[in-house]
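Sample 3 of the quickstart, ligand magnesium ion:
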Amino acid sequence: MTTSTKPPQREEQHKAVKLFPSRLVTAPKGVQGPYKTPRNHVFRDHRKFGFSNIMLVLVVLFLFTPLFVVVGYSFNATKGMRWAGLSLVWYEKLLFGSAELWRAFGNSLLIAISSSMVATFLGSMAAVGIKWYKFKARTYIQITSFLPMVLPEVIIGISMLIFFTAVKIPLGMFSIFVAHTTFNLPFVFLLVSARLEEFDFSIIEAARDLGATERQTLLKVIIPSIMPGVTSGFLMAVTMSLEDFVITFFVSGPGSTTLPLYVYSMIRYGVSPVINALSFVLILGIMLMALSFRRFLKTIAASS
Amino acid sequence: MKGFDVTVKDVSRAYGAFKALDNVSIEIKKGEFFSLLGPSGCGKTTLLRIIAGFDSPDVGSVLLDGRNIIPLPPDKRQVNTVFQNYALFPHLSVYENVAFPLRLKHIPETKLDTKVRDYLHLVQLDAHLDKKPSMLSGGQKQRVAIARALINEPNVLLLDEPLSALDAKLRQNLLVELDHLHDQIGITFIYVTHDQSEALSVSDRIAVMNQGVVLQVGSPYEIYESPATDFVARFIGETNLFPAVVTKCEAYDKYFMTTLEIPELQAEIKVTDYDELKQGQQVSFTVRPEKLKITGHKPSRVGKDINLFSGVVEEPIYSGFQTKYYVRLDNGTVVKVQMQHTNYMDEGPDIEWKDQVYVSWSAEDGYIVEVIDK
Ligand SMILES: Nc1ncnc2c1ncn2[C@@H]1O[C@H](COP(=O)(O)OP(=O)(O)OP(=O)(O)O)[C@@H](O)[C@H]1O
Ligand SMILES: [Mg+2]
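Result:
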């Protein structure tokens, strides 16, 4: 535009802008031409052998050394801590001579999957109900549903035991299933609630607007869009159920030994290297699962 | 012309004692780009939801191509909506979001695929088919929402402030695209906005609403140049607005030359109007800043229908293509004057801060507007 009749300070501004476009204005004195800001030194630090890197290595060592030891000894030819050469005897024994261990593993899987499915169903329904409907006992239910999460497991275990004895439910697979469903519920509830928290109600109207009936809206929009919360709730429940020892210990009966219980009973007679072999098999299995879930978890992250 | 006409007839909707819509009647023509304009909370979304079928009026009817659609559920109306917050399905990709309405109708896969790609091409999203909505920018989300609403080939497209979440520059671009899209498809667009410049720039006609009432329906030109009420005058563009009393009203062959007494200016001014007004009637007087002339010296010849005041420049605001002056008149009132810098070789804006100036306007450039409390 024009300059001659404008007030003088505007002219100065004009010049300043022409010399140094605003993002280059930080050029230090004496620097001519386009000027790049130097790379931030803070971000360079991690390439050096600095404090944070040493800590990282130490923590990783601390976490994984026991695992490496266990894996190493699973290939040992003898029992005990003395190294006697590479061998697969313990794997052989694990696969062909440990029927009881596999039965316990089967029990664990059965309970984990069945109780997680029931807990996922109930927990999701509870989350939806508490989020979308208003009724009196709402806050009360919300608070009590978190109790199993904060109470010490021993207390839950004992109270379950007392309860089962009182109502004359025999201790066994069924009682374990009930107990696991109970302590899994709040986790599913929490994860689905979190998902519902960001549920955008207008997508229901959008679906109706685009020609979906109420049924189609439920099946094609509402359920799929809260599915990531439901699935992560389910996975969480499976994990918790598989590894639970304390509560299961109280409510199990004859013939319903789960894997953690069985491993514990084996250890009481000295650590058998079969457990080492089992550990390695489990580590491998879990790593495979984690890798295949990574893709899945990424899509969850993307859609939330 | 494609699309349906939409008639809103005597629609009222109250939430408890609060009237969100109060006896609203609007006739929207086939293929029109019609805007509902009003401040936040004036009932625009409520009216749109009633047309789409998410809400029903307490009384009144909505006719689509002459047929009352109030009893129909939303999925049975040939109306689609672009929501204020886009309402994309988070679990579906861009492609599947747009394909959603077709999948419901079990359209064969090959036909569906071509159609979805066509519509995504129409809104220039060919490169983002597989992305999830959470990976898109605001403008892209908005375009997915438009493609999804258009793929059903509705006869009316409702748009609820689709650009409000975007930055000014992008908003301008998308607005132009939207207008272009409207020209291409030719169906009726009902566009809700609280941004007057948006409404003015693309609409065929505008309904200005406030507090659940429609104040004026007209072309952007009509709404801007002859506002019906003082609210419309203030809401659309910038203006100088003063309460006034009619002192004289002389009839000429095509108009009335009205003389108004304006207490704030401590003066009488002249204004032409098409209605005869009674002496002593309370009205408002409005004149747009760009209609005022500002000069450093007293105009040599002052016609009898020129209103002239003198004052001092209190604040000049230069913005490149124009300068806006706040001028304090001798009687103490501040008026806004806008001066376009069309050609630099003309007399430049040598008027500066604290200069003594003269402000004038012709009787034809002012307007008398009704005073109502909405
Ligand atoms: N469900 C409801 N219950 C009570 N009041 C409501 C309800 N929905 C809307 N209102 C009221 O009705 C009025 C109009 O709301 P509406 O959503 O139509 O405004 P709007 O013009 O779309 O505003 P904005 O530009 O902010 O979107 C508002 O004052 C609002 O508070
Ligand atoms: Mg709204």
